[in-house]
């Protein structure tokens, strides 16, 4: 960044309704409310004649803060942090702005994503290559997510996903009895056949005995992975559940325990990286690099976010070597979005944007 650069940060609120409520063990999600953030160089925003340039004529970095109860700060705390960052950035620079959002993960996600998008766009580099400095990546594998529903509906949704080319399907469990969830998974397996990888996500709904009973039944259905079977604090319990035929992934547990403690306890076969909840794509990428040295899989997913955060997660996944099929095919869960989606889903894969930065355009005008 040159000495004459003076970055400015602005934010505005949005509300995105879901196409239909997403039922999970933690409750129903009906809409996603958050803040769109943009960063630009105030000095470059003016032409030589002193006139303000149009957005189309200047480099803008976009970020998104979409808080989610149980994962991030509240909406009010997020907004307050963004306001502090907006006040801090022009006079003191990016480090000062980041200090203002350091304890608020959704706000930090937005600011770091906007700054990264601005830097990548300024250097005419796709965001994933700016993050990872690695080779070009054309596409990344993604999984379909199926919410809680009766067995027939769950199986039909999974079959639809398989017909669309998804080779991995994640089913939400934990809101019903173990027996009911096992029956749902049995019908799903019958519907998709033996070649589709199945995962389940319990969102910490079970006791240890319930989780063990479910895992033993799921193993007979060739379920590959169960996400967060126990509450986030149960690190030793998750370690004890490993080795029973189904891999264990931690999601919410990463918000309560240091990654070093997770690895030391041997509590996970995989970790689920939600950039919004972890405080940014930079944090998530460092965690992925760490666990890869230990043979632990990294899965990138969203918290049902708008197109800016969702595209950022796609670039994050593209910057992680050998990333596992990730939960990024969530655009169709929104009834409305912030802008046109630049990510094409094709045969169970996300086609990674190769334009500069995020590749999201028209977002501020449509917010």
From TrEMBL:
Cofactor requirements of the protein: a divalent metal cation
Keywords (A to Z) from UniProt: Lyase, Magnesium, Menaquinone biosynthesis, Metal-binding
Active site: residue positions: 172 (proton donor), 274 (proton acceptor)
Ligand binding (Mg(2+)): 201, 227, 251
InterPro entries: Enolase-like_C_sf, Enolase-like_N, Enolase_C-like, Mandel_Rmase/mucon_lact_enz_CS, Mandelate_racemase_C, OSB_synthase_MenC1
Domain of life: Archaea
Enzyme class at the top of the EC tree: lyase
Catalysed reactions listed for this entry: (1R,6R)-6-hydroxy-2-succinyl-cyclohexa-2,4-diene-1-carboxylate = 2-succinylbenzoate + H2O
EC number: 4.2.1.113
Domain Mandelate racemase/muconate lactonizing enzyme C-terminal: 151-248
Keyword Metal-binding belongs to the record: yes
GO MF, one example: O-succinylbenzoate synthase activity
An example Gene Ontology biological process: amino acid catabolic process
Main function: Converts 2-succinyl-6-hydroxy-2,4-cyclohexadiene-1-carboxylate (SHCHC) to 2-succinylbenzoate (OSB).
Record protein name field: o-succinylbenzoate synthase
Native source organism of the sequence: Natrarchaeobaculum aegyptiacum
Lineage: Archaea, Methanobacteriati, Methanobacteriota, Stenosarchaea group, Halobacteria
């Amino acid at each position: 960044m040159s000495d004459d650069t003076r970055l400015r940060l602005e934010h505005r609120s949005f509300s995105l309704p879901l196409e239909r409520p997403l039922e999970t063990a933690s409750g129903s999600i009906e809409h996603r409310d958050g803040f769109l953030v943009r960063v630009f160089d105030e000095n470059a925003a003016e032409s030589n004649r002193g006139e303000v340039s149009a957005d189309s004529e200047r480099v803008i970095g976009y970020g998104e803060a979409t808080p989610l109860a149980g994962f991030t700060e509240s909406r009010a705390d997020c907004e307050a942090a963004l306001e502090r960052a907006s006040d801090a950035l022009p006079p003191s620079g990016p480090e000062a702005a980041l200090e203002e959002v350091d304890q608020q993960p959704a706000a930090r996600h937005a600011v770091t994503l906007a700054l990264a998008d601005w830097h990548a766009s300024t250097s005419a580099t796709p965001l994933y290559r700016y993050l990872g400095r690695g080779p070009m990546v054309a596409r990344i594998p993604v999984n379909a997510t199926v919410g809680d529903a009766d067995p027939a509906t769950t199986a039909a949704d999974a079959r639809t996903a398989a017909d669309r080319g998804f080779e991995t399907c994640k089913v939400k469990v934990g809101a019903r009895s173990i027996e009911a969830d096992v029956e749902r998974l049995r019908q799903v397996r019958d519907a998709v056949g033996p070649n589709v990888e199945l995962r389940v996500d319990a969102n910490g709904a079970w006791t240890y005995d319930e989780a063990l009973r479910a895992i033993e039944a799921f193993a007979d259905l060739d379920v590959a992975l169960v996400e967060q079977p126990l509450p986030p604090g149960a690190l030793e319990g998750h370690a004890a559940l490993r080795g029973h035929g189904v891999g264990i992934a931690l999601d919410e547990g990463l918000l309560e325990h240091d990654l070093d403690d997770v690895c030391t306890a041997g509590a996970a076969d995989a970790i689920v990286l939600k950039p919004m909840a972890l405080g940014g794509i930079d944090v998530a990428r460092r965690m992925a690099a760490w666990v890869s040295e230990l043979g632990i899989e990294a899965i990138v997913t969203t918290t049902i976010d708008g197109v800016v955060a969702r595209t950022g997660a796609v670039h994050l996944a593209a910057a992680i070597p050998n990333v596992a099929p990730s939960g990024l095919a969530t655009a169709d869960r929104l009834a409305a979005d912030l802008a046109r989606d630049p990510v094409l889903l094709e045969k169970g894969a996300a086609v990674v944007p190769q334009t500069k930065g995020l590749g999201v355009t028209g977002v501020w005008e449509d917010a």
